[in-house]
Design a protein that fits this description.
The chain is an alpha/beta fold. The protein is built from 15 helices and 12 strands. The chain has 2 domains: about 170 residues, Rossmann fold (3-Layer(aba) Sandwich); about 170 residues, Glycogen Phosphorylase B (Rossmann fold), CATH 3.40.50. The protein has a 6-stranded parallel beta sheet, with helices on both faces. A 6-stranded parallel beta sheet has the order 9-8-7-10-11-12, with helices on both faces.
């Protein structure tokens, strides 16, 4: 029986693609189908990354030559992620293997429109046009891809998230607790969030912001010190596993004021844990959050608006609890693995792949 070859980054790396694929694995996809996963990228130095890419290509060619591949499913983002994986599509086209181009990340439009010349844009369009299916994460990305590609087989499929079986009582969550998870830097709106904390230092003395993630830790700490919010903000470094689950179960607000996003897994995870979300109205976030229902949406860079919404939720526990419960219900309906995975499996069947 031929295999589904899935291509992405190493499952041990930090980032959205690896988070999504880990949910696929945990939801049993790799057991229900003959999925062989190839990592074209890993954390580490240039030599390690080059070795991962070359090794993945070598294994792919060997599998093609021995007739093992029935479908190619590639998770791509912008810039190096796309260039690194584009050769997989060319080889699949050559061997007449159907392909799924699964677009992640919030920077692809900027990459395509502002960083690529006419030849590179034509090459990108060629791959999008030839793919058997193109998957995007939101309605906004669906409209954008349709604007650059003539492919009629473009569909939206949300990122899936695993639902925790039980949630703690709202009263058990720490009063004043706000959580941010992501790469520390300007792109994630970290400095806007710190500015908002500075505005709330006197108005909300109970505020405690926990920030988990890697990135520009030194620059962020310098900003914390300059704003005088060292008593309100704690840098945790990269968090995962039980530590992350504990943070999601103990916080009262989740905040992600990014400037570019696809459909962030961290927002879906927060909603699954019954936490109200304050985020920016970009990428696929409006598909997950309706302003005033599961949380609040605002424009990137609006530190004053961010402060006002944090203050509102910290001062109204009933409102925060109600929004968190609405988010949990929405995830159950639209973003849980039980809701999303059947869509992917239907697509696999349409492309000739059968469950084991």
């Amino acid at each position: 029986m031929k295999k589904i070859l899935m291509v992405g980054t190493s499952l041990g790396t930090k980032g959205g693609i690896s988070s999504v694929v880990r949910v696929y694995a945990d939801a049993g996809l790799f057991k229900r189908y003959r999925v062989h996963y190839l990592a074209t990228h890993c954390d580490g130095g240039a030599i390690a990354k080059l070795g991962a890419m070359l090794g993945a290509y070598a294994r792919f060619v060997a599998m093609l030559l021995t007739g093992q591949v029935g479908l190619l499913h590639v998770h791509v983002a912008s810039r190096a992620s796309f260039w690194r994986k584009s050769g997989f599509f060319l080889l699949a086209f050559l061997f007449r293997i159907p392909t799924i181009l699964h677009l992640h990340g919030g920077g692809f439009a900027v990459f395509f429109e502002q960083e690529c010349g006419p030849l590179r844009r034509a090459y990108i369009r060629y791959i999008f046009n030839r793919a058997a299916r193109v998957l995007v994460l939101s309605s906004g990305w669906l409209a954008w891809v349709r604007s650059i590609s003539s492919n009629e087989r473009i569909a939206t499929m949300f990122n899936p998230v695993l639902l925790p079986p039980a949630l703690p009582a709202w009263e058990a969550r720490a009063p004043g607790s706000v959580l941010f998870l992501g790469k520390l830097g300007q792109a994630k709106g970290v400095y806007d969030l710190l500015q908002a904390c500075s505005m709330l230092r006197q108005r909300c003395p109970m505020l405690r912001l926990a920030m988990g993630g890697d990135g520009d830790l030194a620059g962020v700490q310098e900003k914390i010190d300059a704003l005088g919010v060292t008593a309100q903000v704690e840098l945790l470094g990269w968090v995962q596993g039980e530590q992350k689950l504990g943070l999601l179960d103990s916080c009262r607000i989740y905040v992600l004021p990014s400037y570019m996003e696809g459909l962030p897994m961290s927002i879906l995870e927060a909603m699954a844990h019954g936490v109200p979300v304050i985020a920016t109205a970009i990428g696929g976030i409006p598909d997950a959050i309706e302003d005033g229902v599961e949380g609040y949406l605002l424009a990137p860079g609006d530190a004053a608006g961010l402060a006002e919404r944090i203050e509102r939720l910290l001062n109204d526990a009933a409102l925060a609890h109600r929004m968190g419960a609405a988010g949990r219900r929405k995830v159950e309906r639209q973003f849980s693995a039980a809701a999303v995975m059947p869509q992917l499996e239907t697509m696999y069947a349409e492309l000739g792949m059968k469950a084991v």
